[in-house]
Design brief:
- The protein has 17 helices and seven strands.
- Strands 2-3-4-1-5 form a five-stranded parallel β-sheet, sandwiched between helices.
Length: 339
């Protein structure tokens, strides 16, 4: 079972001003860390007190003794201090922070961000771990992505319907940082509307309602080679980077067939469709299109499609002298063939 992500607990604690003296955070999904840092800054120190009671330091640029001194200092005419140290694991002589772990400063909140995974069994991390809260923000699993994209959208003041969330997840994969950047771009198409639709996601990608990668996915699911070829050709004509467009198409179709593969196993267990949707990270509405595709593909054909997609990805990334158009056209013929 995947370890829970501690984002909500920490965000709520920061918003209610329930602070611990020390936080050590790390992990692959940086959006969680960046968002928590912003929340901590908003709630820990009033804006008019920050000049003298808040420091944001970078491990590669700051002297360890000076950084430790900032963490051990007391506030100036304020309730507390806040010290944020990014790239703490890149700080030379950060072993000096063992002293802070052994004797935290109750008048200072210290937020240490590691760029890599720290060895928590060695000092200073072992001492710091014993003095405060350690949080690992691992990369998301595909079936978690939709929920967290909704969280990112709400944090930015947007509301996405389920189809838009699914499309965005297919575009960006499991990276919330990429989702946040894409939402900023999509917002220009939404204008002053707070609700972002599937059409907004499509338009921001430079595609159209009739010719987009999700319509391509749908017709591939129907094994309609002629329609798949027509849509893919239009997508390549619209793109300023055909090779990149082909790579994106292969990535989205790979995700599609991997979900079909998961669903074949879930169907054998005879669980409810809503539970199936949760297991693979789809909304019940989106699941219907996948179940329709399962009536066209059996397990052997799905596994064959996944193999073809893996080979095409290798070719597109330098493993073949063929043009990207030829690679994509042959791929579509393979995966839609009734064999």
């Amino acid at each position: 079972m995947a370890a829970p992500i501690p984002y909500d607990d920490l965000r709520k604690a920061f918003e209610s001003r329930a602070f611990e003296p020390l936080y050590l955070v790390y992990g692959e999904e940086r959006w969680f860390i960046d968002s928590l840092q912003q929340t901590l800054i908003r709630h820990a120190i009033p804006e008019h007190e920050r000049d003298f009671n808040q420091d944001i330091l970078y491990g590669a640029d700051v002297d360890a003794r000076a950084a430790l001194s900032a963490c051990q200092s007391y506030p100036m005419m304020a309730e507390r201090r806040l010290v944020v140290i990014r790239d703490f694991d890149r700080m030379k002589d950060n072993s000096l922070f063992k002293a802070l772990g052994e004797q935290p400063n109750p008048a200072c909140i210290v937020f240490l961000v590691c760029s890599g995974k720290p060895n928590l069994s060695h000092h200073p991390y072992r001492a710091l771990k014993g003095a405060g809260r350690v949080a690992n923000f691992r990369a998301l699993y595909p079936n978690e992505t939709a929920r967290w994209i909704g969280v990112v959208a709400r944090a930015k003041g947007y509301k996405l319907n389920q189809q838009a969330i699914h499309m965005l997840a297919e575009f960006v994969g499991t990276s919330l940082s990429a989702a946040a950047a894409e939402l900023d771009k999509i917002s220009t198409y939404a204008g002053e509307r707070s609700e972002i639709t599937a059409d907004d996601v499509i338009r921001s990608s430079g595609q159209t309602r009739e010719f987009n990668v999700f319509e391509l996915q749908r017709v591939v699911g129907l094994r309609d080679y002629a329609a798949a070829l027509r849509i893919s050709e239009r997508l390549l004509q619209q793109s300023s980077n055909p090779a990149g467009e082909c790579t994106k198409i292969v990535a989205i179709l790979s995700s599609f067939f991997l979900k079909l593969w998961q669903l074949t196993g879930l169907q054998r267990t005879r669980i409810a469709e809503n539970d199936m949707a949760k297991r693979v990270g789809l909304s019940p509405y989106i699941l219907k299109g996948y179940l329709q595709a399962l009536r066209k593909y059996n397990l052997r054909q799905i596994e064959g499609a996944i193999s073809a997609l893996t080979a095409a990805d290798f070719e597109l990334k330098g493993g073949s002298a063929r043009s990207e158009r030829m690679i994509l056209h042959l791929l579509l013929r393979q995966v839609t063939a009734n064999t």
